[in-house]
Amino acid sequence: MCIKFKKKNKNIEIIEPDGGHYTCGGTTRTRDNAAEKTIVSTEIVNFELEFSLISYVLDEEERNNGFYGVFLLKCKRTENGVECHYKQRKRFDPNVTADFVTDFNFLVKLDKIVKEYDFAVLNGYTSHTAGLPDMYGDDLTINYASGECIYTANNQSIDLPIEGLRKIKELFESAMNKVDKKQAVEEFNKEEEPEDFPSDWMCSECGAINKHASDFCYNCGMPKPGVDPKAHCPCGLEFFGDIPDSCPVCGLSKEDFM
Questions:
Q1: How does pLDDT run across 120-179, given as a tens digit for each residue?
Q2: For residues 63 and 200, what is the distance between their CA atoms, to the nearest angstrom?
Q3: Which residue from 204, 166, 150, 217 is spatially nearest to 1, judged by alpha carbons?
Q4: Residue 143, helix vs strand vs coil
Q5: Which tens digit of pLDDT belongs to each residue from 26-80?
Q6: Could you give the CA distance from residue 6 to residue 126 in angstroms, rounded to a whole number?
Q7: How far is Cα 192 from Cα 144, in angstroms, rounded to an integer?
Q8: How many CB atoms lie within 10 A of CB 46?
Q9: What confidence score (pLDDT) does residue 131 get?
Q10: H helix intervals, 57-161
Q11: Which of 23, 160, 167, 205 can bridge 19 by disulfide, Cβ–Cβ 3.0-4.6 Å?
Q12: Is beta strand 238-239 parallel, antiparallel or unpaired with respect to 231-232?
């Protein structure tokens, strides 16, 4: 697990002492010289991110898309899937909170965002301004299966790339909405039909209604509930139709997962 600021950690360098931990308004910035700036592993096992857009200047489109307030996004890998927690605190609108379980491919997508926006470049950097209420910046901890980790925190302003934060927020919301849609699909597919008239089925991906005899959705190609995949990649991707020579997500050769 990542270990944040500790006075006795010999790798911690106080790069801008200002009495921040003791004086109201003072800021103390630290850097862990042992923190890796390149993460080799792609297997996230635990992820915790909190960031505040309260002091961030937003345009009307961003507000209309729900990109405002304070976000708390957490997930961890378990044997049965990825347990996620989503919370958005708003000033004038009702807060949004949800707990849900999604598939392992979620962690693959999450790591791609972390790598794309180079979150590791801030690994080991912290900034603490005394006297600020709650959290006005960002706080990130990521643990990998390899033992590698990323941690950074700033309680005054956001250091992580805004576009990367936006994509992670959208990833959590997409997974959350898919779970809601899956529940609706299960309810639809449970409806009883006469025995001589097999029921149609609703696609869990796009919501299209398909004929009973169809094993794949006519609209997006997703398989019918209950149809087993032909192959599984260790990264979590499943193949139902033609299997490519390599996994499009992680690049693993077909021969290595067949």
A1: 999 999 998 888 766 689 999 999 999 999 999 999 889 999 999 999 999 999 998 887
A2: 39
A3: 150
A4: strand
A5: 888 899 999 999 999 999 999 999 999 876 666 666 665 667 788 999 999 999 8
A6: 11
A7: 45
A8: 16
A9: 81
A10: 60-64, 105-116
A11: 23
A12: antiparallel
What does the DSSP assignment read for 12-55? EEEEE-SSTTTSTT-EEEEEETTS-SS-----EEEEEEEEE-TT
SS3 241: coil
CA pair distance 2, 17, nearest whole angstrom: 23
- Let me know the angle formed at the C-alpha of 225 by 222 and 228, rounded to the nearest 5 degrees: 80
CA 51 – CA 139 distance, rounded (Å): 6
The per-residue pLDDT for 107 is 96
Return phi, psi of residue 185, to 5°.
-65, -45
Task: Give the C-alpha separation, 48 to 202, whole Å.
Answer: 34
Copy the structure tokens of residue 123.
């690994």
CA distances from 194 to 191, 200, 226 (A): 10, 12, 20
Helix 105-116 vs helix 162-190: crossing angle, to nearest 10: 160
- The tokens of 76 are what? 């961890």
Q: Backbone phi, then psi, for 37, in 5-degree steps?
A: -100, -5
231 token code pair: 């192959």
The Cα–Cα gap between 253 and 10 comes to 43
Name the E strands within the chain. Answer: 12-16, 27-32, 44-52, 70-78, 81-89, 96-102, 125-129, 138-144, 149-154, 201-202, 209-210, 231-232, 238-239
Task: Enumerate the domain spans of the chain.
Answer: 12-179
| 51 CB burial (10 A radius; 0-12, 13-18, 19+) | buried
Q: What are the structure tokens assigned to 78, written together?
A: 């378990």
* 47 backbone dihedrals φ, ψ, rounded to 5°: -140, 130
Contact 194, 207 (CB under 8 A): no
